[in-house]
Amino acid sequence: MGTKRLTLKQKQQILIVIACLVYSFAYTGRYSYNANIAPIMAFYNVTRAEAGLTGTFFFFAYGAGQLIHAIFCKFYPRKYIIPGVLCVSAVLNIVVFCGVPFGAIKYLWLLNGICQSVLWPTLVLVLSDTMDSVMMKRAVFAMSLTVVIGTVISYGGSAIFNLFDFFRGAFLLGAFLMLVIGTAWLVGYDTLTAEKAGLAEAQAAGSEAAGEDGTRKRTASGALIGLIAACGLFIAVDNFVKDGLNTWTPVILKERFGVGDSLSIVLTVALPFCGVFGAMLALRMNRKIKDFRALSGSLLLMLSVCICGILLSMKLDSMALTVAFLGVVSCFAHGINSIMTSIMPFALRDKVNPGFLAGLMNSAGYVGSTASAYGLGVIADRTDWNTVMYILLFASVGVTLLAWGTVLLGHLHKRKTEQ
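Now predict its structure.
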């Protein structure tokens, strides 16, 4: 009996799963530090600012790397670059697991950020070239779940390891998962990406657009640049809030409410589950709201309201309410992140290289992430967590007003040109 060949649809489905797991497991190789920041602070006897500096080193390298790889990812050997960087990241996690001085960890995580920054734009480019328009919707949703899957595995595993006072086990877990999925990518790549359905569709759309009037093209290009610039600022503030809370929630719960390390990590695990609903909400809202500025502005408004809820809950000294509002904030923040890094690059793939746009958006987002890890730690050291929340609120409200301001200006400009 001959072996049954995979259909194109089956190949696309398997590729989506593997790509989703590649980026999800990569999260376990970076969150192995963030998930254990409270026990690491206690073990090494360091301040919040010192502990947050490691995350800042990672975010800086990751964000800068995204900008570079956004430009050059189309030239990379995609079959080998993905497992290659996963292997290097795994080795760095193993080095930390084996035990190094605290001062060395930030440099190891700098290298980790450089390596992992290759992944997102390259994965988006592979999926964009391979998926047809029907499967693309599934790819968008699957890739929006990566942060949720990775965070749950990393924080959940860390909670278990901390029950046995063995936080270093999280680094070994991340290394193992990255090596496994890297091998799967290497073995299956050629078979799963042989047919470029998405690339053919994009080229067909581009050929139709080629006949447009030149003035119209220049106007569209200007509007596209304005959209990308505005959305870059939106995701920077969104990641400032999202990654700031993701990094410091275990410490906030421990210091503000006296929760133990393991329980604080378990409660933090609940937050990314809310991110699933955020990704679903973003996709559903995008069916009705095609303007990405208006779509982002709607979610940013809800994000601002929920940060107010966190402040109120902390003043009432209610841990249950605080965790609940943190979950809702996580929902909206992940929704915004999903719009910028998944939905928009795939939606605009006939106008701009999706790998470039995804990398550019991720790079902009990690500007906010870089500021959040160290910056919020310093502020908390010098003031308190209430001040940190006020800063997050002011940032969120400011960019919400900007989002709706750009929407209003866009409508006024459109009305003027139609007259």
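The chain has one domain: 8-198+223-418.
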